[in-house]
Amino acid sequence: MTKILLVEDDESLGFVVKDNLEHEGYSIDLQVTGKAGQKAFQQNQYDICILDVMLPEMDGYALAEHIRKTGSEVPIIFLTAKSLKEDRIKGLKLGADDYLTKPFSIEELVLRIEAILKRTGKKSSPQTTTITIGSYLYDPKNLKLTCGEYQQELTHREADLLSFLVRHKNETLSRDKILIAIWGDDDYFKGRSLDVFITRLRKYLNKDANIKLSNVHGIGFRLEVM
C-alpha cells in the first residue's frame, strides 16, 4: 500500500483529503504542523509527501528543504493558496514534483498522485469494488447504480458525491466538508450545485424506502441506510 505523509493545518481540508485518499486505497499519515511533519518523516518511510506551504512552526518550503537535505528523493506535492509564479519556482527549486493551488478537487489530487506513481514505477491504488447501499449495488469505477432491473449511469461528480456520502452513511456531514471534498472549495455557487446533485441522488435512491438522504437544517446532509 502506498504510504503518504500529508501535512496540512486546516482541519476541514485535512479531514477530507485524508478520508478521500484512504478511500482510494492509500495509507495516510496526517500531521498538522511543520515540526510534526519533520518528526514523522524522520521516523517513517513514505512514498509521497503532500505539504501545505503555510504551516505553523515550520513552513512547507522549510520542511521540503529538510527532506531533500536527508538525501531523500521522495516525491513532494505542494498545496498552497498562493498562485504567484515566484512561489511555484521556489517550490520547484526545492525539488517539488508538483504544485496544487487551493482550491482544488480531490479528483485532481488523485490524478496527480497516480501520475507520480506511474512515473516512479510504483503501483497505483487498488480498484474500488462494488458497494451495497440497501437494495442497491453501486459500482463507483464504472459509474453505475443498480437496483434489480433498474440501472442508473452516474456522472463523475454524482459518483464522487455518492461515494463520499456512503463512506459516512448515517453521519451528519456539514455542507463545507462536502463542498471541499468534492468541489475543492465552499463558495456560494458551488453550494447551489451541491443542492442540485443532492436532489438527483435522492431521486436515484428512491426505490428503497430504507434509504433516506436528509437535509439537516443549518448543518448539511445525512445519508441514512436502515
The number of strands is 12
Beta content: 15-25%
Spatial shape? elongated
Into how many domains do the coordinates divide? 2
Mean pLDDT: 88
CATH domain topology of the largest domain: Rossmann fold
From the helix content, strand content and strand pairing, which structural class follows? alpha/beta
Helix run count: 8
Show unreliable segments.
none
Helix content: 40-55%
- As laid out across the biggest beta sheet, the strand order is 2-1-3-4-5
Describe this structure in words.
- The protein is an alpha/beta fold and 226 residues long.
- The chain has two domains: 3-120, Response regulator (Rossmann fold, 3-Layer(aba) Sandwich), CATH 3.40.50.2300; 131-225, Arc Repressor Mutant, subunit A (Orthogonal Bundle), CATH 1.10.10.10.
- The protein is built from eight helices and twelve strands.
- The strands form three sheets. Strands 2-1-3-4-5 form a five-stranded parallel sheet, with helices on both faces.
- Helix 6 packs across helix 8 (188-204).
- It starts with a strand and ends with a strand.
Please give a handful of descriptors for the protein shown.
2 domains, 226 residues, Arc Repressor Mutant, subunit A, four-stranded antiparallel sheet, single chain, Rossmann fold, alpha/beta, 8 helices
Briefly characterize the structure.
The chain contains eight helices and twelve strands.
Could you give the topology of this structure?
Layout: E1 3-7, H1 11-23, E2 27-31, H2 34-43, E3 48-52, H3 60-69, E4 76-80, H4 85-93, E5 98-101, H5 106-120, E6 131-133, E7 136-139, E8 144-147, E9 150-153, H6 156-167, E10 172-174, H7 175-182, H8 188-204, E11 211-216, E12 220-225
Parallel strand pairs: 1-2, 1-3, 3-4, 4-5
Antiparallel strand pairs: 6-7, 7-8, 8-9, 10-12, 11-12
Helix pairs in contact: 1-7, 2-3, 6-8
